[in-house]
Each structure stands twice: as C-alpha cells, then as structure tokens.
Amino acid sequence: MTLRSIITLPDEKILREVSKPVGAVDNATRRLWDDMLETMYEAPGIGLAAIQIGVPQRLLVVDLAKEGEEAKPLFVANPEITWSSEQQSDYEEGCLSIPDYYEMVTRPAEIRMRYLDRQGEAKEIEAQGLLATCLQHEIDHLDGILFIDHISKLKRDRVLKKFMKAQKLGKL
Ligand code: NI
Fold first, then answer.
1. Is residue 1 over pLDDT 90?
2. Category of 167 on φ-ψ map: left (φ > 0), alpha (ψ -120 to 50) or beta
3. CA 25–ligand 1 middle distance (angstroms)
4. How many Cβ atoms are within 10 Å of 139's Cβ, its own excluded?
5. 138 is catalytic
6. What residues have CB less than 8 Å from 124, skipping those under 6 apart?
7. Are 49 and 14 in contact, with CB atoms under 8 Å apart?
8. How far is the CA of 34 from the centre of ligand 1 (A)?
9. Which of 13, 19, 33, 124 qualifies as a cystine partner to 56, CB 3.0-4.6 A?
10. Which whole number is the average pLDDT over 97-116?
11. From 42, 93, 126, 138, active-site residue
12. Distance in angstroms (rounded) separating the CA atoms of residues 19 and 145
C-alpha cells in the first residue's frame, strides 16, 4: 500500500472532474482501494473518493469505525443512489480536500445504493444516519461536486477566497 497525497482547495480543477465508471473490479482496482484506504486512515477521515488522489474513477472507500474500534472498511465501485428518502437530515460536514472547514449540510436522511463490492459483485445497501450522509458526500465527489456546493454562495465564496489567499501567502 502506498500513501497518496490528497488534492485540496484551491486546486479545484481536478476535484471538479466527473469520474468514469470502472469496467471491472480487478487487482489494479483493489490496489488502488488499498492506497485510498491507507491515505484516508492516515489523514484521518471517514470517506475518500479516488478523484481526491487524482484518479478519475468511480471508486470510494468509507470506514465509520471510531478510534479504538475494529476497522470496517467499505469498498465501493460505480455507486448509484437508487432511492432517497423525502425526510432530510442535517450534518456538520467536512472534507479532506477542504481541510479545517466544517459546515451544516442538509441531505436525504436515508438512501439506497447499488454498487460493486471488492469482489466485483453487485450489491445494494440501505444507509441512514452518518453513513447515508457520508456516501452521498463521496458520490458527489465522483460528479465533481463538493459539499460547499450545498451551502450558501456567500459562505462558499468566503471559503474559496480563504484557500486562495493561503496559497498566495505560501501557507499551503
Ligand atoms: Ni469530501
């Protein structure tokens, strides 16, 4: 496994790319997932999309296990949301590509997601709570969407400006 570097703001260009579905889950896919997982654990974070390490493939890793709990990684390829609840919920979200910034985001409280697992088998799961939020956040990445796109333009412009300024000052 190899630690990869995570692309962060203001480097928006790659993060805005739409990722392509994987043709099949093979050893190269599994190696990439392992790198993503190690990179995510190291950060640390609870979810990571391949595009965040510069690979435009529809691949995610998620692990909601808390510190001290046994790791429970979920490997996801080609995810599709097949149903989402009318009921919404609010979570304070953050993103490894937008370090040290957190904001409340409203999303459907429950979803159903179809995807390919680590063996390449088609699966469908139902998710609620933090898992539902996390999966929607990560799937957004595959379409070039960041969680700051779900907040007000005023707040979004402010955070983008903050990252551009930090880069100019050589702090990134
Ligand atoms: Ni993110």
1. no
2. alpha
3. 23
4. 21
5. yes
6. 82, 112, 113, 114, 115
7. no
8. 18
9. 19
10. 97
11. 138
12. 11
